[in-house]
Amino acid sequence: MRGTEHGVVPETTTGPPGRAGRTEPGQLGRAHRLGVITALFLVADIGYSFFFGALGTILLGRGVSLGTVALINLLGVVYFSRFLIGPVIDRFGSVRFGHYRTWLLSTQVVLVLLLVVLAGLDPVDNLGPTLVLMTLLLVISAFHDTAINGMAVRLLPPSDYGVANGIQVAAASLSILIGSGGALFLYSHAGWTTTLLALAAVFLIPLAVLARLVEPVVRPANRSEPWRALLSFFRQRRTAVWTLLVIPVFLLGDWLASAPQSAMLLAVDWSLDEIALVQYTLAVAAQAAVALVAGALITRFGRSAPVVVTGVVGAVATACLLPLAFGGGGYGLTAGALVVMAVAYGAKMTWVSTISMELARKSSAATDYTIPMSMIGMCRIVLSSVGLGLAGVTGYPVMIASSVLVTLAGAAVALAWTRRHVSGGTTAGG
């Protein structure tokens, strides 16, 4: 680890096992590191995905008005503002028990307790208390998921970034599937209480992993520095352009094309079961599988090639939705296009996560890695809503055709930036 280059000072003291801060950085084996990443990201989006993907549907099914559910969804802003707490996560932590490990253990215990308490409530009859606890769940999830980002940057050497981020995207996809589609499926068969207790049980997996983890110590050279990390991140031209321009432009076509998908499918008489099967099961499963492959390919072939491949594949898949946009399109073509679009987006997210991790400073890991990830969440919500509104004005064919062009343009912008700023676009970590 090049401490002077990242403004950090590694500790290499030894002592009894089981306590972070008593080991040399990089002592964990590669399989151990990647196993920890898998376990952590498996629960990374459960709270968020349950709130946005399952709770609203459950409330609507119980007779809560659409307007009320729409207002409830606004509470989600507390989660997408999690980059603001990055400096807190980076600044405070236990050296003895592990800086990020302490945050993760404490927040996971609180999340389990909140889910258990929620399991004892009726979400409609006790709507007020349910929303209070769900808001608290989102706040704790924000701290938890930000600490995961910091831990990932701390544990991984640059040579593992590609593979690890493939694992991250795959595990996060499964996490979203568990918190949204999986939760809805279980709710429809077993009810609210069983669903919440099952979600709480999933957290036992990373808790067991963290209980045995020895976290490498990387202290900030200046303990006050993390407080300035948020501003300094945007003062650096490279990271500012990456976060505010390259990422949104690269992913814009995907966001715009995905916004009217459900509406287009319903317009050609797809059933809710068919939509759930293709969009939220087959597509997510394929996305998770391909993310693993994408991570390995990024490590093997560098950073430029994935931009070209994912841009072209995503554009072609989006173009295959044009028959659907015109009110036609066979089931096979449409389903295939939706799955390939999800696969391309998962590969893009693997690439974006890899570059974001390379740009993160070890001394402010949670802040630097969370900022671009939070930006993606906020932009996706806003631009997806804009895309749905534009589709209603321009029509589906214009929206899909425009998305194809935007996807190609975004890939061109990302490729140009990568070749200039990321180790020639060929190797990691430079």
UniProtKB/TrEMBL annotation:
Pfam families given for it? Answer: MFS_1 (PF07690)
Q: What keywords tag this UniProt record?
A: Membrane, Transmembrane, Transmembrane helix, Transport
Listed Low complexity bias regions:
10-26
MF terms per GO, please?
A: transmembrane transporter activity
Q: What is its main location?
A: membrane
What residues form the membrane-spanning segments?
34-58, 64-81, 102-121, 127-148, 169-190, 196-218, 239-257, 277-298, 305-325, 331-348, 369-390, 396-417
How this chain sits in the membrane, per its record, is: Multi-pass membrane protein
Quote the InterPro entries the UniProt record gives: AmpG_permease/AT-1 (IPR004752), MFS (IPR011701), MFS_trans_sf (IPR036259)
Cite the residue spans of the region called Disordered.
1-26
**What protein does this entry describe?**
Transporter
